[in-house]
Specification:
This is Hydrogenase maturation protease. It comes from Methanococcoides alaskense. Keywords: Hydrolase, Protease. By secondary structure, the protein is of the alpha/beta class. It has a single domain, classed as Rossmann fold. Strands 1, 2, 3, 4, 5 and 6 form a six-stranded mixed beta sheet that branches. The chain is globular, with a radius of gyration of 15 Å. The two termini are 14 Å apart.
Length: 164
């Protein structure tokens, strides 16, 4: 790996037109605004609602941090932040505690497919509870989810430091 290849990629997922579902994208926007505080060998990407295309973004790096919205079954409050490692997501037991993606295909399903078709880097996922997927168009985040954008950044920075 050359000195210009990223060792870490941070990926924000979500649809910014669907309110809280866009939280992952809002987190990467906040990280990009930090500018000088982010080392050059870290990629920060807005993946939108890319589905299986995210597998392409898992290549050529040592570690990936994914930030996405999640919908629980009432065991977590809106704005809660949960951290998962790859094995946590490949273990279907997490569904028993009510952790589901807010998208058509979940991150755990994508990673399960990825494990069978490619070598995966170290993967950390921060899921931010949004409570429910709203059907009306809005670019606004609820106050709880907006607060979670700021609260998750130190956790991401901690993962960055652990990579260096």
């Amino acid at each position: 790996m050359s000195e210009f290849d990223p060792s870490l990629r941070i990926i924000g997922c979500g649809n910014i037109l669907m309110g809280d579902d866009g939280v992952g994208v809002r987190v990467v926007e906040a990280l990009e605004k930090m500018g000088a505080g982010i080392p050059e060998d870290i990629d920060i990407l807005d993946a939108g609602v890319c589905g299986l295309d995210i597998l392409n973004l898992l290549e050529d790096v040592d570690k990936v941090i994914i930030v996405d919205s999640m919908v629980g079954s009432g065991s977590t409050k809106r704005g809660s932040i949960l951290r998962f490692e790859l094995e946590d997501l490949l273990n279907k037991d997490h569904e028993d505690v009510g952790i589901f993606s807010a998208h058509d295909i979940s991150i755990s399903d994508i990673l399960s497919i990825g494990k069978h078709v490619q070598d995966l880097p170290e993967i950390i996922v921060f899921g931010i509870e949004i409570g429910e997927v709203k059907e009306e168009l809005s670019m606004d985040l609820s106050s709880e989810v907006l607060d979670a954008v700021e609260r998750v950044i130190p956790y991401i920075i901690e993962e960055m430091v652990g990579t260096s």
